[in-house]
């Protein structure tokens, strides 16, 4: 840099110059790489401004596509969460032929607790059972007036440790139970458990299949939209190639444009998703009769939201790149 | 500057657009390429800026063989070759300044250099007062002058013009011709495809005549 007094001047053609007041004209030269980056960003932004409709079409398509895939993802994830919740409720209830007396109860409870698969043991006496039943009946509890308190059998409710909440675990517990107790009846929802396992499996399978299909459809639609927007600008691409622009020089602004549109599309899709979550997804899942009242529906985690915006960027960049190859041929 | 050896170009199964053509054009020459529509003028020019590759034969431009040029090398060939078309091929969404600057930016020229050169190029074609206009706001002759400024702003070795005056009236055509001659006077080799014989009468130069893809005539103007 030459020292001295400089004056910043805007020349006729808009270029910035530093004028050395004494004699020499020194031109301000930014490093070439920075100059190029600046040019590419400006070019991308200008292109978007010059073609607002095309740009909006790309962003909107990406947003809708991403939001559709993500909505589906949320349905699957929440249903699975719900299913997991249900398995927590899995317990073995042993109804006893005769209620044990106070002395043997403590020993029995301890024995049951020592079964390796068992996590919790809860004794429900005949009186407790009646109380529960009354509570369950609510306003109709008066129906039970005059009914003997020993009508209902006493029972043990055994909660299982998480890793044994399956058919094998239950079978093992039942086998051991029968050594200790004079059991009248056992309830453990075996049929239900089998059905549930099948349901969870098919849910995962359908989830992967449909999710993959949706993703493919989204990719197809987005790349086609980008192709159309580039088709409208094929003259520009042709002329760029004619005046000696390299493939990379043509690609970079379009890739940047795709990336910017991807970010906007991703953010917009999050907005769509939030709206569909609040107004459609959560009311419908919450009204599902098996949903426990304290079940919290999950929205995308922060990381998943970032991934979604990032997928928008990838979608935009790859969509632009793959379409460009069709229009720019050397 | 330009040499063709037995060049043939066929499109698909059709008869050849250019047949067994051999010719040489020296540095700084001004050459008309004439012939009826379909004679192969456009194909010949397209091969010279590598938009087409010859089916057979060799083409040398600036001593480089471009008949089997790699795609990656094409941009660098095109930086030496300015092209002007009948339909101008300007970007309607950009200003006159941006249209001309485009050619320099594509070559990665620095900003201050771009502004300066674009202004000079537009001044040479007499349109420096139209910098911020869009092409469609201008007349056909003015649009062609912008296209010429764009082709010349990069100081090409060769200027190819494909029917540049096809859409223009005679007065404007002569203005355009003057620009080509100026460029030629500065050392640029000019190839001008046209079927307008009045041009050669008014500005006599070497004439290559094509017919059905063949070179059937090569006349030079009488000296003096």
TrEMBL record, chain A:
A single GO BP term for this record reads: cell division
Membrane-spanning residues: 51-77, 205-226, 263-285, 305-324
Q: Does the keyword Signal apply?
A: no
Q: What is this protein called?
A: Cell division protein FtsX
Q: Which organism is it from?
A: Desulfuromusa kysingii
Q: Where is the ABC3 transporter permease C-terminal domain?
A: 209-329
Q: FtsX extracellular domain location, by residue?
A: 90-178
Compartment annotation: Cell inner membrane
TrEMBL record, chain B:
Q: GO CC: one term?
A: plasma membrane
List GO BP terms, alphabetically: cell division
Q: Which SMART domains match?
A: AAA
Query: Can you say where in the cell this protein is located?
Result: Cell membrane
The answer on whether this UniProt entry bears the keyword Cell membrane reads yes
The family assignment reads: Belongs to the ABC transporter superfamily.
Q: How does it assemble?
A: Homodimer. Forms a membrane-associated complex with FtsX.
Protein name (Swiss-Prot/TrEMBL): Cell division ATP-binding protein FtsE
Recorded source organism is: Desulfuromusa kysingii
């Amino acid at each position: 840099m030459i020292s001295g007094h400089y004056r910043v001047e805007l020349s006729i053609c808009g270029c910035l110059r530093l004028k050395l007041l004494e004699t020499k004209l020194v031109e301000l030269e930014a490093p070439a790489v920075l100059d190029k980056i600046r040019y590419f960003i400006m070019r991308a932004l200008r292109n978007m401004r010059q073609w607002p409709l095309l740009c909006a079409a790309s962003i909107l398509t990406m947003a809708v596509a991403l939001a559709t895939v993500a909505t589906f993802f949320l349905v699957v994830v929440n249903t699975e969460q719900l299913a997991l919740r249900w398995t927590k409720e899995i317990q073995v209830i042993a109804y006893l032929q005769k209620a044990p007396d106070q002395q043997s109860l403590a020993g029995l409870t301890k024995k049951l607790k020592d079964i390796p698969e068992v996590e919790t043991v809860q004794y429900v006496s005949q009186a407790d059972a009646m109380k529960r039943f009354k509570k369950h009946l609510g306003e109709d509890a008066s129906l039970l007036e005059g009914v003997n308190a020993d009508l209902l059998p006493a029972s043990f409710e055994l909660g299982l440790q998480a890793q044994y909440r399956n058919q094998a675990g239950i079978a093992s517990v039942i086998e051991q139970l029968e050594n200790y107790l004079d059991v009248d009846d056992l309830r453990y929802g075996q049929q239900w458990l089998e059905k549930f396992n099948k349901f969870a499996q098919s849910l995962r399978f359908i989830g992967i299949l449909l999710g993959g299909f949706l993703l493919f459809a989204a990719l197809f639609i987005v790349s086609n939209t980008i192709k159309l927007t580039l088709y409208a600008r094929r003259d520009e691409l042709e002329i760029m190639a004619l005046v000696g622009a390299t493939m990379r020089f043509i690609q970079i602004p379009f890739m940047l444009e795709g990336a910017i549109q991807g970010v906007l599309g991703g953010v917009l899709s999050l907005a769509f998703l939030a709206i569909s979550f609040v107004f459609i997804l959560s009311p419908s899942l919450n009204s599902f009769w098996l949903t426990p009242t304290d079940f919290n529906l999950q929205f995308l985690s922060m990381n998943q939201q970032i991934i979604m915006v990032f997928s928008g960027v990838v979608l935009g960049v790859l969509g632009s790149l793959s379409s460009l190859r069709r229009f720019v041929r050397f | 500057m330009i040499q063709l050896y037995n060049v043939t170009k066929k499109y698909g199964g059709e008869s050849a657009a250019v047949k067994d053509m051999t010719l040489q054009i020296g540095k700084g020459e001004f050459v008309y390429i004439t012939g009826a529509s379909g004679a192969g003028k456009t194909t010949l020019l397209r091969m010279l800026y590598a938009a087409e590759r010859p089916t057979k034969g060799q083409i040398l431009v600036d001593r480089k063989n471009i008949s089997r040029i790699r795609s990656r090398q094409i941009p660098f060939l095109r930086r030496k070759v300015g092209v002007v078309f009948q339909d101008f091929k300007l970007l309607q969404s950009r200003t006159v300044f941006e249209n001309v600057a485009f050619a320099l930016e594509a070559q990665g020229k620095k900003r201050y250099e771009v502004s300066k050169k674009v202004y000079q190029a537009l001044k040479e074609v007499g349109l420096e007062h139209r910098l911020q206009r869009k092409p469609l706001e201008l007349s056909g002759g003015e649009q062609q002058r912008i296209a010429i400024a764009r082709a010349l702003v990069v100081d090409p070795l060769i200027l190819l013009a494909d029917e540049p005056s096809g859409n223009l009236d005679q007065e404007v055509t002569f203005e355009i011709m003057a620009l080509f001659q100026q460029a030629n006077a500065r050392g640029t080799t000019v190839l001008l495809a046209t079927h307008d014989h009045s041009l050669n009468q008014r500005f006599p130069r070497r004439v290559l005549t094509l017919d059905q893809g063949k070179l059937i005539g090569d006349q030079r103007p009488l000296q003096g």
